[in-house]
Fold this sequence. Notes:
It is built from 6 helices and 3 strands. The chain has helices at 2-7, 12-19, 26-32, 38-50, 66-74, 76-92; strands at residues 24-25, 54-56, 61-64.
Amino acid sequence: MALLDLLGRRWTLRVLWELRGEPRGFRALQAACDRMSPTVLATRLGELRTAGLVATDDAGVNRLTPLGVQLMTALGPLNEYADTWAAALRAAD
């Protein structure tokens, strides 16, 4: 359940989502996660590094680790369900 606790923290999934396609430096990641304070981003990146989901290289570029990629793959069906759910809500309006 520790993973679910981590994923439930504000901005954690957004950071992972933004790193799914390409590695990003701190400022690029902050820009992609609009409205996130630098303090929160630094905290989330530290937590994700400790969890083994994100790595930061010597140049300060953040990327998903193999475990992070595996997590994003595992979350794929949830994303598909979210799309279906959102479409159903729009259709009901």
